[in-house]
UniProtKB/TrEMBL annotation:
Keyword Transmembrane: yes
Keyword Cell membrane part of the UniProt annotation: no
One Pfam family, short name: Gate
Residue ranges of domain Nucleoside transporter/FeoB GTPase Gate in the record: 154-252
Protein name: Membrane protein
TM stretches of this protein: 29-50, 72-93, 114-134, 154-182, 229-251, 257-275, 338-362, 413-434, 446-468
Species whose genome carries this gene: Marinobacterium nitratireducens
InterPro entries according to UniProt: Gate_dom
Length: 469
């Protein structure tokens, strides 16, 4: 995501000004940290139950908007994608004067190379699906229909509120406060800054895409190195409780949700410890975004406890928070970037991925090596389960779709758990990572996907055999 705030001043306050270990702050300074942070906690990190489902406040707002505008969102999404493609083509071919300016809006509408053509393809796929014209593999209900009618309305509404509310969580000191409290645990176990815990919690209670959004912004602001950002984005953008409940219900395991989700958590934690220590993630360098420089230093000064230093860091960060006007501009630009930049890529890559699944046996062929492994793990119906091990790279929901017909409850349990621990799927999170400035390419994402599958599959099978069934 693009970030339009000047974070250099914030970073200097975090790194310097330590002559007085206990500076005095006014009540207003503390309230500037506390009130916005509480708003962020309320909407992102506070689980609530609505109609029997666990969700978060931001999710409730997004669902309300989606429900109110559900009849119009596919057409709205198509309009956004077509406008994005036309403006981008106009800028690329005619190079009008406004494209020579250095601004975020120009950056959004002047994609280069393959990103431009993917934007055009996404718009074409959306229009073909909307009007059901052209090749059926594009507009079929199980390919382009899933992307335009099911996924884009969720992304439009979800990211609209995420862009508006996310600054309350990351720009007013809450990241600094929590990061300081848990930094020792995250450093020792995961070799990551403590503030990365917020990415994981926001994903857990909200959405994996929210976690990626936070990680991307923190990397661009200089709070994560290249290695840290790549590790966090691919290992801590976990599936939310709400989505996990949806998967368990869809595949017929809602009566086992507690052991199901605990299994996902255990396997995910093990993968988060092992995967970053293997290539390609271990090859990433601890270098910071060149445009921002390093903006974080988590050493504990003399005369401070973890709590007091976390509070001090939080108040200093809140003091440099953007004004309401600057905050509004940032939110507007982030929404624009998502709607006009991300949605076309999701539509293009997601439709092609689903078409390969629906119309070709490619995922079946690629999954053959998993059959002996599944048989070794004593999972019934190994041949039926094998394609689900790979199809999740296209979309996280596909393994549940393919695995629903498997008769063995044990195998369905393993399939569903593995799908939630793989994390990398191209219809949403993968595209978001490729579009970001985090140094990850398609081949690396696939390698991480395979690694996480091979690590979590035996763990989940062992738990299923010994503790659940």
């Amino acid at each position: 995501m693009n970030q339009h705030l000047d974070q250099q001043e914030a970073g200097s306050l975090l790194l310097t000004d330590r002559d007085d270990p206990h500076p005095k702050h006014s009540l207003t300074a503390y309230l500037k940290f506390i009130i916005p942070s509480l708003i962020g906690i309320l909407f992102f990190l506070t689980p609530i139950v609505v109609d029997g489902k666990v969700t978060i406040g931001m999710g409730v707002l997004a669902d309300m908007l989606k429900e109110a505008a559900k009849d119009y969102l596919p057409a709205f999404a198509t309009s956004l994608l077509v406008i994005s493609a036309l403006v981008s083509l106009y800028a690329a071919l005619l190079k009008p004067r406004w494209t020579q300016r250095d601004s975020t809006l120009v950056e959004i509408f002047t994609p280069k190379g393959i990103w431009l053509w993917l934007r055009v393809v996404g718009a074409a796929f959306a229009a073909m699906t909307m009007f059901q014209v052209g090749p059926e593999w594009v507009w079929n209900r199980n390919t382009g229909g899933v992307m335009l009618l099911d996924l884009t309305p969720v992304l439009i509404t979800f990211f609209f509120f995420a862009a508006i509310l996310l600054p309350f969580l990351v720009d007013f000191g809450f990241m600094e406060f929590i990061g300081t409290l848990v930094r020792n645990v995250f450093r020792k176990i995961f070799r990551l800054p403590g503030r990365s815990s917020i990415d994981a919690v926001a994903s857990w209670l909200g959405s994996g895409t929210v976690g990626v959004l936070i990680t991307t912004q923190q990397y661009e602001q200089g709070f994560y190195s290249k290695r840290e950002a790549a590790v966090i984005a691919t290992n801590f953008s976990i599936a939310s409780i709400a989505f996990s409940l949806l998967i368990s219900s869809f595949i017929g395991l809602d009566h086992l949700f507690v052991p199901f989700y605990l299994t996902v958590v255990v396997a995910g934690l093990v993968a988060a410890i092992i995967t970053p220590r293997l290539p390609p993630l271990c090859w990433k360098k601890d270098e910071y975004n060149e445009s921002a420089g390093k903006q974080i230093k988590e050493e504990l000064p003399n005369g401070h406890s973890l709590f007091s230093w976390g509070l001090e860091q939080a108040v200093r960060r809140a003091a440099t928070a953007p004004s309401p006007g600057a905050l509004g501009k940032t939110c507007l630009m982030n929404v624009t970037d998502i709607w006009f930049g991300l949605l076309p890529l999701v539509m293009a890559i997601g439709t092609v991925s689903l078409a390969l699944t629906e119309y070709t046996p490619i995922f079946t062929w690629l999954s053959y090596p998993f059959i002996p492994l599944l048989e070794l793990l004593q999972l019934p119906e190994a041949h039926a389960a094998a394609p689900t091990m790979l199809v999740g790279f296209a979309d996280m929901f596909l393994p549940a779709v393919l695995g629903k017909g498997i008769e063995s409850e044990l195998t369905r349990f393993v399939v569903a758990c593995v799908s939630l621990t793989q994390l990398i799927y191209m219809s949403e999170v993968g595209v978001l990572l490729l579009k970001s400035k985090i140094p990850l390419n398609l081949l690396e994402l696939f390698a991480i996907f395979i690694l996480r599958t091979l690590i979590t599959l035996p763990i989940i099978a062992l738990i299923a055999h010994t503790l659940v069934f």
